[in-house]
Amino acid sequence: MEPVSLTLGAIAAALVAKAADKTAERAVEGGAGVLRRLVAWLRERFSADQEGAAALAWVEGAPDSASRLRELAEVLDRRAHADSGFRAELKSLVDETEADGVDVASVVQTVWGNQNVQTAGVVGSVVTVTYGQPPPPAR
Question: pTM (2 decimals)?
């Protein structure tokens, strides 16, 4: 199993999920404007890219879906690798969200079943491990 790594695409995908998740709306209130700009920018950039547009719409439809987030992150990373202008603009928007108070470094990892879990970059972080039944959904 490879170690956990946060790519630019993974961070941007998580920010799209935060923008789409109505329960997190209050938590990102200060950065809501820049999150909306990030999503609008991605929609514009993906207007002629069927794969990108579909991945973005999927995350907006189910922001808590790990597989959809991973798919969007992969699309973003491929695009950023192939297009330095896209990468620079995306990084600038991610940096702006952090400057506006959105926590871009927080990561939630959920594992079900018989799996190994690895964590990275957890210095000064809170790690919670729960055994048994999954916790109730946040309200």
Answer: 0.65
